Amino acid sequence: MKDLDTAMLNWNLTMPNVHLLALDWGSTTALVVMSIIIIGFLVFLALFAQVFNLYIQCVMTRARISFANLIIMRFRKVNPTVIVRCKIMAVQAGLTKVYPITTRALEAHYLAGGNVVNVIQALVAAHRAGIDLDWQVAQGIDLAGRDLLEAVRTSVYPKVIDCPDPKKSPGPLDAVCGDGIQLKARARVTVRTNLQQLIGGATEETIIARVGQGIVQAIGSTPSYKDVLENPDRISQTVLGQGLEAQTAYEIVSIDIADIDVGENIGARLQADQAEADMRVAQAKAEERRASAKAREQEMVATTQQNRAEVVLAEAAVPQAVADAFRSGQLGLMDYYELKNVQADTKMRSTIAGSTSSSSQ
């Protein structure tokens, strides 16, 4: 009985602590829940404060963007200010009646990395100017990296391109006429955007290169530089009629020769260089002939010396032959004197030939 009383006493002493622990756990849970609710409410207030002004704008302008959609844009990493601004511009300009411009389409173009504001402004400008520009085509042009708004502005207000480009080639275009006179020209090309060929069309650099090539070709086919100076418009018309804007993003309105100067006489300089080259060739050929004659002369000298040696050998053999003839009785006195005369005549001729060879050297 004593042990039972002791156990009951211990139980009675432990029960207040268990109640206290239960009370502490309930308070902590309630506090956490309240904290989460408060934090969520503050986040909602922050989001509400951010999009409330945009929602009021949408309601006042009939942009038809719901409050929930504005909040969801935040979670989609979409800037609602840009979307609301573009949708309001489209609605106010009447684009939504012509093009399928929805809020979801604007968000998709924004998430794809496109410039939504630029596309809407370009569509507004094209719609007001009566230019046929489709919404899908406009998105494709913008995503391709082209400045769509600038293209539409250029289509409405043509711009002027300098040929050659002063930033890349500070000097003028150099061309030579048929008479050899060099002309230095500068041109100004007026172009406007061809929106139908903006995708895949060549840029300004191609226009500048083609116009420069056409001007050089037109000047080169002119017989005299005087014709170009008298009528520069002939060059412009010739170049303009070559269809240089093919496969480009621009349409050439006009080509004007802004400046043309007379340069050097390239033909005369080339003729002088050719004459100098011909003179050097002639000198080389003359030197070749002189060396050949000199070699031939040396060959003749060697031949003369060889013949002279043969004559000396022959003269040395004559006395022996005469003595043999006397001994054998085959040579008489008259024959001896005749032989001496022939020998003297041969020696004289040999002397004359040697003196002639020495004078030639």
What general outline do the C-alpha atoms trace?
Answer: elongated
Our estimate of the beta-strand percent is: 5-15%
How many beta-strand runs? Answer: 4
Q: Which sequence of SSEs, written as H and E, runs from N to C?
A: HHHHHHHEEEHHHEHH
CATH class of the domain at 161-269: Alpha Beta
Q: How confident overall, as mean pLDDT?
A: 78
Question: If you consult CATH, what is the topology of the domain at 161-269?
Answer: Tetrahydropterin Synthase, Chain A
How widely separated are the two ends? Answer: 165 Å
Please name the CATH architecture of the domain at 161-269: 2-Layer Sandwich
Number of helices: 12
Name the poorly predicted regions: 7-23
Biggest sheet descriptor = 4 strands, antiparallel
Spatial extent as radius of gyration: 55 Å
Overview in brief:
By secondary structure, this protein is α+β, with helices and mostly antiparallel strands.
